[in-house]
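Issue: copy button drops trailing tokens. Both records pasted manually instead:
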Amino acid sequence: MDVLQLLGEGFAGALTPANLLWVLIGCLLGTAVGVLPGLGSSMAVALLLPITFSLDPTAAFIMFAGVYFGGLFGDSTMGILMNTPGQASAIASTFEGHKMALNGRAAQALATAAIGAFIGGFVASVVVVFLAPALADFSSRFGPAEFFALAVFAFAATSSVVTDNVVKGLTALFIGLGIAVIGIDGVSGAPRFTMDSPNLFDGISLVTVTVAILALGEVIYVACLERHTSTKGLIKPTGRPWLSRRELKEAAPAWARGTAIGLPFGVVPAGGSEIPTFLAYGLEKRLDARRKHPRFGTGAIRGLAAPEAAGNSTTGMAMGALLALGLPISATAAIMLAAFRQYGLQPGPLLFDRAPDLVWSLLASFFIAMIVLLILNLPFAMLWAKLLLIPRPYLYAGITVFCALGIYATSGSTFDLLMLLGIGLLGFLMRAMDFPLAPLIIGMVLGPLAETSLRDAAMSSNGDFSVLVQSPITIVLYALLAIVLVLSVRNRVVARKRERQAVTG
């Protein structure tokens, strides 16, 4: 069936009153957590995961998508107004965005961010509609060896390429893999790392781990180590919340370049939107240096427009990679992959055949979410900024209550509450010692897939592990991984040399 016809059927499903309501709720929640300090779309999805099991799968994932996109729409607000980005993906936007706010252009900076996020997300949604079915057809060629190679690619990229410290990244990955293997082995029936406790025979729920690591651990970290709760540095946006024709003309090329940079990173497991936002900012800065009168450092609108477009285009493409390949490129996407499995669905080529109504309604909801988010953020950005005035003690106390209620509601077990607290303390320690959290989540989500694929490949070849590197797809994946690792090592060596030269010079 033609893609446009399938998309039309998806719009028919997404435009029902109930699903429109879930789009709106997801967008509102996503924008709110993006604006609030220390929160993010991964925490919001983790907190909502226990609550949404009573929902229809289509409604649940439409809401999750709204939260995912809305988080990026809102997370630059704090950086622009307070010079304190709520998430790593908003750091690049802060450089010029906050300078615009200091120059009395806070409202225009928020408008630039909202339009850039809309353009990046909308273009990515168009690409995903046509690319995802092709990716799904391609992934139908994958066997156990190919899925194992894909999991290894994701493990290596998220734990060593994105993180500043490879040892810490790999440690977080192995912690996630270690949690994933707890329970009864599905093949042999033998208990693994259960300490003879019946409570661990079914393993540790991914819902418990994600809520503990991303939400409760963050709450403990803020309560124990962060004391700066003042909002004295908050700049109140005033003036027109739209851009003039001259400003639009100035920002348009940066939006286009940022979108183009962000698209490829949506199908590469490289940690999400952090890398493309910095690449987009760096490109604009180099182009600005060639101007007769460089503007970077004084509140250049292009320095804000490009990272915002890059971040949302990466997020849009990440949803396509998740649906077509079952490949999560960030912690938020990994949680959504876990949610699919909780509903008995496996993203990939079979998802397009077994649940076409869900897939195409979800793809159609991307376009609706972009429009809703633009409406919510462009004229009402000043109202969203007032969320920054919420006292942090009240905010994080409420999050803690929701953590406990969500876990207890899904399991009804006090043991899971104790597990929530224990893993939350682990998350706090990792956060305090600057360990990345995304490798842990991705390791736990993709660990079972890697183990099952490795076993199936070995069994199908009578124990000949050379089958793992015999197909063209696996060879290409491992070659790409080697190139990515070599480039990562090279970039770090160059960066260290520059630091030494700066110190000695």
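Record 2 (pasted manually too):
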Amino acid sequence: MIERTLSRLVNGFAAVGLVISPLAAAAQEAPDAGGLNLPRTLSVLGQNDPNLRKPTAVVNGQIITGTDVDQRTALVLAASKGQIEGEELQRLRTQVLRNLIDETLQIQEAKAQEIEVSQAEVDQTYARVAAQNFGQNVQAMDEYLARIGSSPASLKRQILGELSWQRLLRRNVAPFINVSAEEVNEMMARLEASRGTEEYRLGEIWMAATPENREQVVENMRKIMEQLRQGGSFVGYARQFSESSTAAAGGDLGFVRLEMLPSELAVAARQMQVGQLVGPIENSGGFSVLALIDKKAVLMADARDAVLSLKQISLEFAPGTTEAEAQAGLQKFVAGVGQMRGCGSADEVAAAMGATVASSDGIVLRSLPEQIQSMLLDLQIGQTTPPFGGLEEGVSVLMLCGRDDPQDANAPSFDDLMSQLEDDRINKRAQRYLRDLRNDAVIEYN
């Protein structure tokens, strides 16, 4: 989110006067134009300034330019592995413009309420994002954004908008949210009564809809679903498109029980498998796309929280190895792994057949890819997974050398549940707050 100067601009643009500007004397002969019928003397009607960009929208006097839309759209395109072109790209740009308008309203409201976010704070957050993605190299982040057609300023404005809105809600909404001790105690009792039932970690992209724009919102959500199924980043799309307060967290709702969700979402989530996407689902005055990130039993130990010690035994194929040669090598590799007698003999046997061994301790099973989790879940100490890999990357097996199983989970604390209920109510108030800002805004479109 870029910080823009909040100068008041004249609504609309002055009409461009008719300018007569001969480019050549009448007596000159017209140059050869390759068959084009051009006059000897040109009269230019208006000024053609390539450095002038007309606004896409003016929000309470503040300009959003086509460049702003281009650079923010580039961030979304970079988060999506699929190609977005034609009408779909135009729909994306339309949604990005809506997001920028909301973002502008949030920043303007924070400033009107004398809530300041310093440039130093924005830069610090930007540096943290760069550290997560490019080590400590902020310049590499700058160069990446320029390479994809965006800019550091565009991302910093997004950061500014999020920080401004969070502080505005913290001051103007959160203090007026009341959750009683009785409500929390009732929730704790229900939680204990539901011990052993499943809770779901969900990601959500939510967009508000009115009777007037309902069909357009549904179409936008369907296009988002298509991009996500083609490998687009759910977190990236949630940050750019979701109108819920969880957008800043990439749409992550955390672990929730189905009775805490709107009935429409609860019905869908109950039928989902981990990694599955569903949507658009109509609920709460809008539509949602859901992603099931994980699920577990309430207040029960989850085997996927086990901490493992593993050895990876790998065999690489030389360049030029044929498929038949690889199959023969795989059979020898499997036979060699079968001769291992636990982790103590793995290194010796692997060396004898030209394989390598890598050891790793303290791995939480849940952090591994879903397919690997399934293979390791029921292994005993000293056993190996089936081989996996291919001709180019080689083949590997994982051997289980140790497992620390988790204990039964404890119920969340009183304060945790209090915070969860407060966050839910703040989210609902935030949606109404932004709707009111839209209703009161003076917005002009180019």
